[in-house]
Specification:
about 525 residues, five-stranded parallel β-sheet, alpha/beta, Rossmann fold, elongated
Length: about 525
């Protein structure tokens, strides 16, 4: 099994060396990844090594062990912390417990004692790793949740809350078969004699209706799926061809009549228009709900097909919320190819539906309105996207063909995609430049830290650290050190100030630590650097 990485921190080299030699790291399941003589160096090492365990002394120069633990809680929240000290003080122990320190050990430390702590640590880390990697446990939990996840999937599908390009992948994830073809939806409700209107929506009644249709439905050439949906039973069928919807309504009529003697219920159903693929089932559901509302006007009828009641089949071709979310997601975060596919898909819907000119105008304006709304929300210049003097009055008759319209629409959409992408890049650049300016102004402050900077920028330290390293290829600590060293070198070359004054002017309260960092950075101490006039 992979060894756990350990970072050892103590200002006494003799103690560090003794622990390094006397502990059987490999035998205990660990690897000593690094050592540090103070908390500042340890923090920088931790950022590079990402250790699983940090063993640290309390009393150290520049940054003590408790402050280090506090920083590590944010930097490495999963790391286990072990604190040891020669001071048996309750306050230290209390603070250590408050930081979720795994163990607090009093000096002098013996090899058996530390080995025992490491053994317990390994058991804890093994347990956590096992939980993360136990695929069987996760699979069992998933299988137990699968019926609920399937119901939730169908509900979201019928509500139109699943992007069309994700429907098949999600169905496969839940082991559901939704093959391509014509799909239609019906919504069934019940009137129960001797009860109020709400009784027909009781869960037990709905379950009874659901079981009735599952066992009695007998239409050749189509498969039935039943779902409890918004106080109704939704029937979803895949048809061999669009015209088979009338055979579907006939079968529903037969079952509604059969329900009276068998269930003691009067059922009625609304049927939506067939749609080309399960991705558009929410449109058929909308039609089924509208058809069911005709029961008030149609009297004793039990099955109502929206295609008979509202023969204008193009009425449901709209840019619904799912389409708007998909377009917004592609423009804000997607690739150029994804944007092009979505625009082509929307124009193809107009081609396939054979809309009248007024209806095509309305659909086109819905797309334009969505793009304009996204531009305003992203503070993008609308005229830069649609051209000078744009007022929204672009008509479909301005184009000679749907191909020409699609080309124009794709150009405007990609322009919006480029502007929003540039804004995201500019925002990251401005944030990092602002951080650099702040560092340039405050590098002489010993209290300069990523937390203080993020308080000024109103960002989380974790997000800022990732952004800063991505833009500069340096960690915050390394960048601040570089700035301070550059200023220190200049002062050594151009002034006769004492080293301890230069240390203070570059943010180091301790001149010894300044000399330590300077030598590590330039390869020689400040005095020799000044004497040789290097730089």
């Amino acid at each position: 099994m992979e060894e756990y990485r350990v970072l050892l921190v103590d200002d006494e080299e003799e103690i560090r060396e003794g622990i390094r030699v006397k502990i059987d790291w490999a035998g205990l399941g660990f690897a000593l990844a690094g050592t540090a003589g103070n908390g500042v160096d340890a923090l920088e090492l931790a950022e590079q090594l990402r250790p699983d365990v940090v063993l640290t002394d309390i009393k150290m120069p520049y940054m003590d062990g408790l402050e280090l633990c506090g920083r590590l809680k944010s930097l490495l929240p999963a790391a286990k912390l072990v604190v040891f000290s020669g001071f048996d003080e309750f306050e230290y122990a209390r603070q250590a417990v408050g930081m979720n320190v795994f163990e607090y050990i009093l000096k002098p430390i013996t090899a058996p004692e530390l080995s025992g702590v490491l053994t317990r640590l390994r058991e804890e880390l093994d347990r956590e790793r096992s939980e993360r990697r136990d695929v069987e446990v996760l699979r069992r939990r998933y299988d137990e949740s699968l019926p609920i996840l399937r119901e939730l999937f169908y509900t979201r599908l019928l509500d139109g809350r699943i992007p069309p390009d994700q429907v098949r992948d999600r169905a496969a994830r839940y082991e559901l078969q939704l093959p391509p073809g014509w799909w239609a939806a019906a919504l069934v409700r019940a009137d129960v004699p001797g009860r109020d209107g709400e009784a027909g929506r009781d869960e037990l009644v709905l379950l009874s209706i659901q079981g009735f249709f599952q066992s009695r439905f007998a239409m050749e050439g189509c498969a039935l799926r039943t779902v409890l949906y918004n106080d109704t039973v939704a029937l979803l069928v895949r048809l061999e061809e669009e015209g088979r919807v009338y055979a579907f309504t006939e079968e529903l009529g037969r079952l509604c009549r059969l329900a009276v003697p068998l269930l003691g219920m009067t059922l009625f159903a609304g049927v939506g228009r067939p749609c080309p693929g399960p991705e558009r089932l929410h449109q058929s559901v909308e039609g089924a709900a509208a058809a069911a509302d005709y029961r008030v006007l149609m009297g004793a009828e039990q099955v109502f097909y929206i295609g008979d009641l509202e023969p204008n089949r193009s009425a449901w071709l709209t840019l619904d919320e799912a389409d708007q979310r998909a377009l917004s997601s592609a423009v804000k975060l997607g690739a150029r190819e994804q944007v092009a596919q979505l625009v082509h898909r929307q124009v193809d819907r107009v081609r396939e539906a054979r809309l009248s000119l007024p209806q095509s105008r309305m659909f086109f304006l819905e797309i334009l309105t969505t793009l304009a709304r996204m531009a305003r929300a992203g503070e993008a210049d609308v005229e830069e996207i649609f051209g000078p003097g744009f007022t929204g009055m672009v008509s479909i008759t301005d184009f000679r063909s749907l191909d020409e319209l699609e080309e124009w629409l794709l150009g405007r959409t990609l322009r919006l995609w480029e502007l929003l992408g540039r804004q995201r890049t500019d925002s990251a650049w401005k944030t990092v430049e602002g951080a650099k300016s702040y560092i340039a102004e405050h590098y002489a402050d010993p209290g300069l830290s990523v937390e203080a900077l993020c308080g000024q920028l109103h960002l989380s330290p974790a997000y800022f650290s990732t952004l800063f390293k991505r833009e500069t290829q340096k960690s915050f600590t390394a960048y601040v050190t570089e700035v301070r060293m550059e200023h220190a070198a200049r002062l050594l070359r151009e002034t006769d100030e004492k080293t301890y004054l230069i240390a203070q002017r570059t943010g180091y309260a301790d001149p010894n630590y300044f000399s330590f960092v300077f030598k590590r950075h330039f390869g020689q101490p400040p005095s020799k650097f000044r004497a040789e006039g290097q730089g």
